[in-house]
Amino acid sequence: MKAHVYVTLKTSVLDPQGQTIQNALRKIGFTGVDGVRQGKYFVLSLAKGLTLEAAKAEVERVAREVLTNPVIEEYTYRIEE
Amino acid sequence: MKFGVLVFPGSNCDHDTYNVISEIAHQPVTFLWHDSEDLQNVDAVLVPGGFAYGDYLRTGAIARFSPVMQAVKRFADAGGIVLGICNGFQILTESGLLPGALMRNAGLKYICKQVHLRTETTNSLFTNQLTKGEVLQIPIGHMEGNYYCDAETLHQLESEDRIAFRYCTPKGEITREANPNGSLENIAGILNAGRNVLGMMPHPDRSSEKLLGSADGWKIFSSMVNALATR
């Protein structure tokens, strides 16, 4: 089982890197993109024998307590069986 | 009074900070290795600049879990004096000893230059040798110094007089141009609620001797020495 965790800045927090990418996209002619938010992506390989419920609980704790700084970041994740 | 300078793998201002205490303050000082919870009975803890644990994941994110930081948290909770400089400030926010976070500089560049700071409060163990409004020239050297906190926290910092320094012009004006990194309200340094923990991005360790271009940073260390002597 694997967990895919995506960490991004909260929407209330300015993302200068995302803005810079967006500006570059506009300059080179990608008119179909209205905004860019940059983030981080983690793949966690989960221990064998974990139930789905236990895996979710573990991943949520890892994401909340380590992978994100809750002051500025938020996360989403999905589990791949 | 004895000072302790934390050393993480990747710290690179530990010797500068140590040097200020031993050669200028003439006080006993020891290095405290990250892997031990023993603070060796120091009276003040200095968290130096650098790249603790390579700044992997986020600045200060891994350092927060080190054994020495568990001891520093207990020390600070009991009223112990803690100064975090640059990466040290980042580590203190990640550890929850100070509110808010330090984000990537608004201009996305590493900035290394002299800046001016306005002293916002003299009511602290770190600023008692300063006068309110006094302008200090102290260098910065960072990629993630863009201070951010939510509106409620900012209101708390302001109403409790916990903003220690703001970036300013040489004349002490708080302007957008004087803000090097996009920090909220030009914030360069803040205190915890107990006023015994200060985090600041600029480097008083690099400005405590005239030879280095400015000795203004020394006033922060001398405030600490003064506070410890009268405690």
Automatic annotation (TrEMBL), chain A:
Name of the molecule in the record: Phosphoribosylformylglycinamidine synthase subunit PurS
- What is the superkingdom listed in this entry's lineage? Bacteria
Question: What does the protein in this record do?
Answer: Part of the phosphoribosylformylglycinamidine synthase complex involved in the purines biosynthetic pathway. Catalyzes the ATP-dependent conversion of formylglycinamide ribonucleotide (FGAR) and glutamine to yield formylglycinamidine ribonucleotide (FGAM) and glutamate. The FGAM synthase complex is composed of three subunits. PurQ produces an ammonia molecule by converting glutamine to glutamate. PurL transfers the ammonia molecule to FGAR to form FGAM in an ATP-dependent manner.
Chief location of this protein? cytoplasm
Quaternary state and partners of this protein?
Part of the FGAM synthase complex composed of 1 PurL, 1 PurQ and 2 PurS subunits.
The pathway to which it is assigned is: Purine metabolism; IMP biosynthesis via de novo pathway; 5-amino-1-(5-phospho-D-ribosyl)imidazole from N(2)-formyl-N(1)-(5-phospho-D-ribosyl)glycinamide: step 1/2
Keyword presence, Ligase? yes
User: Which family does the entry's similarity section mention?
Assistant: Belongs to the PurS family.
Q: Which UniProt keywords apply?
A: ATP-binding, Cytoplasm, Ligase, Nucleotide-binding, Purine biosynthesis
Q: Which reaction is catalysed here?
A: N(2)-formyl-N(1)-(5-phospho-beta-D-ribosyl)glycinamide + L-glutamine + ATP + H2O = 2-formamido-N(1)-(5-O-phospho-beta-D-ribosyl)acetamidine + L-glutamate + ADP + phosphate + H(+)
Under Enzyme Commission nomenclature, its number is 6.3.5.3
Which Pfam family, any one of them, does this sequence belong to? PurS
Tell me if DNA-binding is a UniProt keyword of this record: no
Q: Where in the cell is it found?
A: Cytoplasm
Molecular function (Gene Ontology), one example: phosphoribosylformylglycinamidine synthase activity
From TrEMBL, chain B:
EC number assigned by the record: 6.3.5.3, 3.5.1.2
Q: Does the keyword Ligase apply?
A: yes
Catalytic activity line of the entry: L-glutamine + H2O = L-glutamate + NH4(+); N(2)-formyl-N(1)-(5-phospho-beta-D-ribosyl)glycinamide + L-glutamine + ATP + H2O = 2-formamido-N(1)-(5-O-phospho-beta-D-ribosyl)acetamidine + L-glutamate + ADP + phosphate + H(+)
Q: Does the keyword ATP-binding apply?
A: yes
Residues the record marks as active site: 86, 203
Question: What is a GO molecular function of this protein?
Answer: glutaminase activity
**What protein is this chain from?**
Phosphoribosylformylglycinamidine synthase subunit PurQ
Location relative to the cell: Cytoplasm
**Top-rank lineage group of the source organism:** Bacteria
Quaternary structure and interacting proteins, as annotated: Part of the FGAM synthase complex composed of 1 PurL, 1 PurQ and 2 PurS subunits.
Q: What does this protein do?
A: Part of the phosphoribosylformylglycinamidine synthase complex involved in the purines biosynthetic pathway. Catalyzes the ATP-dependent conversion of formylglycinamide ribonucleotide (FGAR) and glutamine to yield formylglycinamidine ribonucleotide (FGAM) and glutamate. The FGAM synthase complex is composed of three subunits. PurQ produces an ammonia molecule by converting glutamine to glutamate. PurL transfers the ammonia molecule to FGAR to form FGAM in an ATP-dependent manner.
**What is the organism of origin for this protein?**
Acidicapsa dinghuensis
The alphabetized UniProt keywords are:
ATP-binding, Cytoplasm, Glutamine amidotransferase, Hydrolase, Ligase, Nucleotide-binding, Purine biosynthesis
